[in-house]
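Incident log entry.

Two folding requests arrived from the same account within the same minute. Monitoring flagged them as a possible duplicate submission, but the sequences differ. Recording both here for audit purposes.

Request one:
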Amino acid sequence: MIDVARTKRETALMRWPHVIPAVLAGLTLGLCTFRAAEACELKRYTECANAQLAGADLRDKWIFRSNFTRANLRGANLQGLVLELNDFSNADLSEANLADTFLAGANLRGANLQGADLRRAFLFRSFAEGANFAGARLDGARWITGVICGPDSVGECRPLPVNAPLPVWDPQWQATPASISSIPSTGSIKLTNDVVATVTQVLPADPMRAKPTEGASFTGYSFVPRSQTSVVNVRVSTGVFSEKGNTAVLAVFVNRQVPPVKLVSKLIRAGVREQIDFEFRVPANGASILIFDFRIGPGLPGSITFNGQEGKPPDYQPATVVLTDEDNR
């Protein structure tokens, strides 16, 4: 018989080797303290409501499905921790170091995150209604909606512009723990991008040469399939213009793996806007989350204009991507 809890624990340890399991223990009159132990038996569902942990260094702790409601974590260091499904509602996380943390499914409702460091954090599918992000650093974070926040994201998530390459860092949330399956499935989502932008970075038309750092990312989404045997139907529609003519290349990467799961190229005649539409299916193949990245670029040196001719109001539908779990049909 498979020990599911042990399997999840060992999986997470392999992917986050710096996280050392420790007992979360001690609850006296609302004061939560941590027993310093390097290799203790995992204890989950710890009650730490109203905990006084301001400035605490918690980087060697295993914190899962614990209650930190109204806790004082001001200036605490939680960098790189897997914090999914924890309750931080109405907690004080101001000035806290939450860089590289995995917060999927976490309850951040009403939390104070003023001045917090959330760079490269995974916030997708967390719950943050009423949370205060004033002054918080969000560059490189995967935001609640699934987009990646750009380098100017302070106090709010400003999605990476269409002509910006993917960040050069390798954020830890790209390797997601098996327990992500406890988060509700996506079902179906429609993504729209109405930005008109010129793209100059070449994206090779050869699938074996295309990389997730080439071209420009025009949209992305972290899709949670209904099951590990799900199949996701993907429909893409966009218009492309080229003043001097070129080849438009669209590539779809999943979890930054190469080659892309789909690559389409089309000759764009000089001065003509061409429509590119295609549809395909992506099996989950046992994955608990599929991080889609949709990229576009010229196949040859030169430029193309995403969504039509730059500087002219579009009189057509903007680029759209529709992702649908076929288990929900």
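Request two (distinct sequence, not a duplicate):
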Amino acid sequence: MPPSRAPILHAPRDHPRNPAVDRPAGRLANRAQAQDPDTIDPVAALTALCDGNDAGACTRLGDRLLEGEDVARDEARGVEILFKACQLGDRPGCNMVGFVSSKGTGRAQSTDRALAYYAHACHGGEATACSNLGLAYISGEGAAGAVIDISP
């Protein structure tokens, strides 16, 4: 019998970038910035969109904060913003909350919370979350059909 291996969960980078926000000609650019694309701050643009409850922008901003991409790395704030993205309905954001919960990034590690967020995202059609949920069940983490609570 081959040795048991821990599952390889899909990392948060599975969330696609939005060129309308992540590139210098993003939709928040004002006229002066549109004339000089190098002056646009993608983190500021994502922050403004997330503040306006754009769930996808919140996911991308949370990812940038977790990775320290174009901004100082801030795991606690990144996780908080990912929770917001999920609550706003962004299923890739919910998958990312599951991933950071499984690793203990930015807050205490919680397998139960990870499974709940993976399941929530999976039920919403996020294939990566379905994969993560299945891998967790295969490795013996949680029970299929468990009650799902995604309160922060």
